[in-house]
Design brief:
InterPro entries: UBC (IPR000608), UBE2O-like_SH3-B (IPR057733), UBE2O-like_SH3-C (IPR057734), UBE2O-like_tSH3-B (IPR057735), UBQ-conjugating_enzyme/RWD (IPR016135). The protein is α+β, with helices and mostly antiparallel strands and 919 residues long. The chain is 20% helix and 26% strand. It contains 16 helices and 39 strands. A hairpin with a 2-residue loop joins β6 and β7.
Length: 919
């Protein structure tokens, strides 16, 4: 049983309790082992827990209770812990209170302080990796921190070890486990800790009292102080985020910590957590160092206490946290002060998922020659796509309430709302480019020519050399997005509403990558993955080699491994036997037949053979709808078409004498064993290239669609698998088929696998590759093809996402039909027309059935509907999207002479009106 399935409410970094005592709690570090020592699966999932005394224990999930989630940040997407399959929301605010303890050397509690505001504590190392800091008018992120440590010995001698965290020779006497937990926000060393070294660390140290002695090898840390900070500058009030200007005029990367003002903890650094070491300032005393904790509320409290008192700071440890969050849900409901344990992080977000405040564009008209082309099919220019802001979302219906802006709005003015509209989530996409969202860190830009303001801020940092600047009125966090405006809470505590052009979003970067950006000697480009078989940038693949797939993280999101072994031939023979008996369909092989499939077998899947206009099975001598003879064999050898993806690939490597025979053997296998729904063309002038098309199986979102693939056989084939390129037309309708054309499959060695899942030179074949793509990739629930998502099968989160993903895949399949009709791959032009002439009205009939709320084979009226179809739900959002799609489909099918499509012209007009009654 998978841990994520059995314990959906327990996440990494959760604070959990497993007993009544103060020390009977800790932070979830990781899941327990997937298997027991004897190789069996554990009966109950386990978790590794980091405890307050820095020990790690393993507990059963059933013994754990989540008591806090202090890591939740503004703009983080969450779901209700009691209804993970329901609507989601975004966090708009978070407040954490701390319970602190002081432990003695034996780990026993000697003092407890409860309900402490974070403004009363400071970290041992005040700045952490990734934290946002300010220097004058500049905003930056900390990429590295140098820490000096004072060590006191038993005889009273004291020395200072410079850059102690970077010095591997200085080590703690006791290994503290919190070093493994979020080290970016904690120091390896803290006062009271015993540290020593067998090397020359103490000999090379600066001695404050006494001098080096070989007997002084272990001491006690008495002081930890930052000596230097490396900062990656990301924005300023006078040049925004312009990369060139930032590089030319930014301050030096190396900074004195005293010259920096702490703004906020980076989002990926989380907040306070148990076992964190800190200094606690008792009420009535000043804060430890105002340059590292600018808190207007704290300053006001201190003023009320009167004159500044002597600083009293106690070294403490965080025992527990209590966090409350404010959540804005998809339906527009706002909740304040929600206990953090009552919501859970929601990371599996579909492209069709939107939240209030998101800026979106209308993609309902994206049915032109290319997805991002603004030219219509008749050569005219398409109208500019509408831009709007999301107000509310109905996740059950997949509909979105959008306020559309007037398109003529001046960039320097607030956008005016033209109208509100209920649209399908499938007809929207996030606005490309730099947009402002809730939780973004923004910088207020100085007006042109306002050098006085800039000078005043810069002069402050220059004249007050020993005091960090405190003017934070120009850097803030987005807390609301009213019509055409942006509401910001600034660093000085004030709140104001600004126009979008008056600010710029300062994008935070992952702290792990920052050091490379500020290290001039780093060689991040020295390593290349061009020859990595798992990388989409395959040799000879121009689009994959561009690096776009790798930048977008597409490789991580792809999965679904090839799962054939030597018994594939018996399955192929079975398919051919069924087809040879005149059946119009082929029952899909259950996925449980394949080893390590990890997915449930479909209840009833069918691959329909191509049919003629009357619905009967079509063979090579069948007449088309216009009564003209049409022949298209499943396999043939032709001249290479100029639009083949691999045509420009140089064939410079000499091939062995047996290579042509190997290819001809593959051709023979294809000619004799191809299923009725796959067609292949080899090329006599380029034996290393092939082109294939497969028909989407009924009962899947890809039904009646055509899917084209170009293949290339490397010189070392069959020692290595073929390269395969998918004609995507810029659409991503399956996790294994990328927009770039990359095909992710273990059988192609483009995804990890082992044993029979990967290419086996002695057993694997081109036929196996093609049948695998059709049967295992283009299946009825493509959502679970995503990496790791097979564990969500049967869970509320999985069910919540699988339906919209499948509906969107269906809409993209319809859109791909329009692309293929306009630009059919060469050598398949006649086949494309014949296919849609015979199947066009059934495609539209399926659309109509979806509009009625379900799809049933008996409703379609197809002659080959001998298998009883199962009803499938249909969201209102899908109906709305189909209303926009059907007119284009009807026109395209009528244009090629498809019969029986005229009746759907009336349906395409009346569809929106009928849908209005279902809202």
């Amino acid at each position: 049983m998978d841990v994520a399935t059995a314990c959906p409410d327990i996440h990494q970094h959760d604070l959990v309790s497993f007993g009544p005592g103060l020390l009977d709690c800790g932070v979830v570090e990781a899941k327990g082992a997937a298997v027991e020592e004897d190789g069996t699966s554990p009966p109950v999932p386990t978790f590794h827990i980091l405890c307050l005394d820095n020990s790690t224990v393993t507990k059963k999930a059933s013994d754990l209770t989540v008591i806090d989630r202090s890591y939740l940040n503004i703009a983080q997407v969450v779901a209700s812990a009691s209804n993970v399959g329901g609507q989601i929301g975004s966090i708009t605010g978070a407040t954490t209170m701390l319970d602190l303890v002081r432990l003695d050397e034996r780990g026993e509690v000697v003092e407890t302080v409860s309900g402490v505001s974070p403004s009363r504590v400071r970290r041992v190392r005040a700045l952490g990796h990734g934290d946002l800091v300010v220097s004058g008018p500049w905003l930056g992120q900390v990429s590295d921190v140098s820490v000096d440590v004072d060590v006191s010995f038993d005889d009273g001698a004291i020395c200072t070890v410079a850059d102690a965290e970077g010095n591997e020779m200085l080590q703690t006497v006791t290994e503290y486990h919190y070093e493994k937990y979020l080290p970016q926000k904690n120091s390896r060393f803290f006062p009271g800790q015993r540290a020593g070294s067998a090397g020359s660390v103490f000999k090379d140290a600066r001695w404050l009292r006494g001098q080096w002695n070989a007997d002084r090898d272990v001491g006690t840390v008495v002081k930890v102080e930052m000596s230097g900070v490396l900062v990656h500058w990301i924005a300023s009030a006078h040049c925004g985020t312009d990369k060139r200007l930032v590089e030319e005029s930014a301050p030096p990367a190396y900074q004195n910590p005293r010259d920096l003002t702490f703004y906020c903890v980076a989002h990926n650094n989380f907040g306070w957590g148990p076992a964190d070491r800190c200094f606690f300032t008792k009420p009535g005393s000043t804060h430890g160092d105002s340059s590292f904790a600018h808190d207007p509320q704290l300053e006001e409290e201190e003023q009320q206490h009167g004159a500044c008192l002597d600083k009293v700071e106690l070294p403490m440890t965080v025992a527990k946290t209590r966090t409350c969050v404010d959540v804005l849900w998809q339906d527009g409901t706002q909740q304040h002060g929600v206990p953090s344990e009552s919501v859970v992080p929601f990371n599996n977000i579909n492209d069709q998922e939107f939240l209030p405040g998101y800026h979106v564009v209308d993609n309902a008209s994206l049915d032109g020659p290319t997805v991002n082309d603004d030219t219509a099919s008749d050569g005219s220019t398409k109208p500019a796509r509408r831009i709007g802001v999301v107000r509310t979302v109905c996740c059950k219906n997949q509909t979105v309430n959008v306020s559309w802006f007037k398109s003529a709005a001046c960039p320097n003015e607030a956008r005016e709302v033209e109208c509100n509209d209920i649209v399908s989530a499938y007809d929207l996409e996030l606005q490309p480019g730099d947009t402002t969202d809730l939780g973004d860190t923004v910088v207020r830009l100085l007006p042109p020519g306002s050098s006085d303001g800039e000078t005043s801020i810069e002069s402050q940092s220059k004249t007050e050399k020993n005091v960090a600047p405190t003017n934070l009125s120009w850097v803030g966090c987005v807390i609301d997005l009213p019509d055409g405006h942006v509401q910001v809470k600034w660093g000085d505590g004030s709140i104001s509403t600004v126009l979008p052009h008056e600010i710029v979003v300062a994008y935070e970067e992952d702290y792990m990558e920052l050091k490379d950006k500020t290290d001039e000697d780093s060689d991040t480009d020295s390593s290349s993955t061009d020859n990595d078989p798992i990388n989409p940038a395959e040799d000879g693949d121009a689009e994959s080699g561009s690096g776009e797939s790798n930048e977008d993280g597409l490789l991580q999101s792809a999965t679904f491994k090839g799962r054939f072994s030597s018994f594939v031939w018996s399955l192929i023979q079975l398919a051919c036997e069924v087809l040879s008996q005149g059946k119009g369909f082929l029952t899909m092989w259950p996925l449980s037949w394949f080893p390590n499939s990890g997915l449930p077998a479909p209840t009833k899947e069918n691959i329909r053979a191509p049919t003629n206009a009357s619905g009967g099975e079509k063979n090579a001598t069948d007449a088309t709808t216009d009564d003209q003879s049409f022949r298209f064999s499943h396999f043939d050898v032709l001249q290479i078409p100029p639009d083949h993806h691999y045509i420009d690939t140089a064939d410079e490597v000499s091939r062995g004498k047996s290579w042509p025979k190997t290819v001809q053997k593959e051709w023979k296998i294809l000619e004799n064993n191809l299923p009725e729904t796959i067609y292949v063309r080899g090329f006599e002038d380029r034996m290393d290239l092939l082109r294939a098309v497969m028909v989407g199986a009924s009962g899947t979102p890809y039904e009646d669609g055509l899917f084209f693939f170009d293949l290339q056989l490397p010189p070392s084939y069959p020692a290595v698998p073929p390269q395969v390129y998918y004609h995507s037309f810029g659409l991503c309708l399956n996790p294994n088929l990328y927009e770039s054309g990359h095909v992710c499959l273990s059988l192609l060695n483009t995804w990890g696998g082992e044993g029979t899942e990967v290419w086996l030179p002695a057993e694997s074949s081109l036929l196996q590759v093609l049948v695998s793509i059709q049967g295992l990739v283009l299946n009825d629930q493509p959502y679970y093809n995503e990496a790791g998502y097979e564990t969500l099968v049967g869970t509320p989160k999985g069910r919540r996402n699988a339906l919209p993903y499948g509906e969107n895949a269906y809409l993209l399949t319809l859109r791909s039909m329009l692309h293929i009709l306009r630009r059919p791959p060469q050598k398949f032009e006649a086949f494309v027309k014949d296919h849609f002439r015979s199947r066009g009205r059934f495609v539209l009939r399926t659309c109509e059935a979806y509009h009625q709320g379900c799809v049933d084979a008996s409703v379609l009226g197809d002659v080959d509907a001998t298998v009883v179809g199962r009803e499938r739900p249909c969201s209102v959002g899908l109906k709305l999207a189909l209303a926009n799609m059907i007119p284009s489909l009807v026109a395209a099918f009528i244009e090629i002479g498809a019969e029986g499509c005229e009746e759907f012209q009336k349906m395409s007009v009346s569809l929106p009106q009928s849908l209005s009654t279902t809202q």
